[in-house]
Write a structure and sequence with these properties.
By secondary structure, the protein is of the alpha+beta class. It contains two helices and four strands.
Length: about 70
């Protein structure tokens, strides 16, 4: 299921993780030649991808949320 990126954070080993609107997290690595995501390497690149929809396997599997968005 496609879900938009709403933010980012780094994991415990300093890899970028996208926060998706569905409440799931997904790694967004740039590891050529297997994964080519050069936009991950800069703040401007990551910002340009806010709202971009990624396939969320966790949604497809019915997994519990990784986080709850706090809108207060």
């Amino acid at each position: 299921m496609k879900q938009p990126i709403i933010g980012y954070h780094k994991d415990e080993v300093d890899h970028w993780v996208a926060r998706l609107a569905c409440g799931h997290n997904q790694h967004v690595r740039h590891s050529p030649p297997w994964i080519n995501r050069p936009w991950v390497t800069t703040a401007e690149g990551r910002g340009s991808m806010l709202g971009f929809q990624l396939d969320c396997r966790k949604c497809d599997e019915g997994a519990a949320r990784d986080f709850v968005e706090n809108n207060t």
